[in-house]
Write a structure and sequence with these properties.
The protein is α/β, with parallel strands linked by helices. It folds into 2 domains: 172 residues, Spore Coat Polysaccharide Biosynthesis Protein SpsA, Chain A (Alpha-Beta Complex), CATH 3.90.550.10; 79 residues. β2, α2 and β3 form a beta-alpha-beta unit. α6 runs antiparallel to α7.
Length: 281
């Protein structure tokens, strides 16, 4: 890079991330002052690779994205700015330039009242960009050190989707945060099952008969028509259909858990009919 920003720490949550970690590290190396990788037990060589690339790697058992992300913020609080990344994300050149300018002290530097910036995340799927599906998808990912806190989705604030809150203003930077969210259909189905279980466990809304019947269709229409996913061609249609199917899985899983709770049955994974938890008299 032509000049170094004042102080930016890239903080990454990882687990068996060798498919995407090389691209991520390539995108943040040379212009960040520190790369912190918080790993939750990778066995595919992620830890060794990150250390070879000069990253600081900290092992921390997985307790959910909210807790993991909060740990990243705490561990990097001494830096002027923290760039929070998932292991399947990477910084495109246009976004890199915007971050360098915002974190510096010259033209384009962040005003003192701005504590964070939203970055636009764009999905790269099956060899091409989704220019319309999900767009725009702004997420708070660049935060002043010591100014951010993590909150979750859902009525309890402990849901699977995290958000970063700051006391000051939140700005927006131009550029693209690449998101290699799903590698293929098999990867999507595997993650959807996990997300569905997590959504039910953390008390996310939904699960009524109306939700099961209506929400998957709305999910398809939102991406394919409202977000103009049809402009992304076959990738846009496939993604909208996948999201509808994933939403259906989530609604059914939430419904099943709630119905079991009302019947007094165990809702733990692997529970069998007739294995209700009995209480001592």
């Amino acid at each position: 890079m032509r000049r170094m920003p004042t102080d930016v720490c890239a903080a990454v949550c990882s687990f068996n991330s060798m498919r995407s970690m090389p691209r991520l590290l390539d995108s943040v190396s040379g212009w960040t002052s520190r790369i912190l990788v918080v790993d939750s037990g990778s066995t595919d060589g992620t830890v060794e690779y990150c250390r070879e690339r000069g990253c600081q790697v900290i092992h921390r058992a997985w307790e959910g994205m909210l807790i993991q992300r909060a740990f990243c913020l705490e561990s990097a609080a001494q830096h002027a700015w923290i760039l929070l990344l998932d292991s399947d994300e990477s910084v495109e050149p246009d976004l890199r330039e915007a971050i360098v300018a915002a974190a510096g002290d010259g033209e384009g530097a962040a005003p003192p009242e701005v504590d964070a910036f939203q970055l636009n995340r764009k999905v790269f799927f099956e060899g091409g960009w989704l220019h319309y599906t999900f767009q725009p998808e702004y997420r708070v990912r660049l935060v002043r050190g010591g100014r951010g806190r993590v909150a979750g989705s859902g009525p309890t604030g402990r849901g699977i989707h995290d958000r970063i809150e700051v006391p000051g203003r939140v700005g927006r930077l131009q550029g693209t945060l690449r998101h290699d969210s799903w590698w293929d259909l098999e990867d999507f189905w595997t993650r959807s099952i996990r997300y569905s279980r997590d959504a039910a466990r953390t008390g996310e809304r939904g699960g009524s008969v109306a939700d099961v019947l209506v929400r998957p269709t709305l999910a398809f229409l939102k991406q394919y028509l409202l977000r103009r996913g049809f402009m992304d061609g076959w990738r846009g249609f496939l993604m909208a259909a996948m999201l509808a199917t994933g939403n259906s899985m989530k609604q059914v899983t939430i419904a099943a858990r709630r119905w079991k709770e009302r019947a007094g049955a165990s809702t733990e994974p692997g529970a069998r009919p007739g294995s209700e938890t009995r209480r001592s008299p």
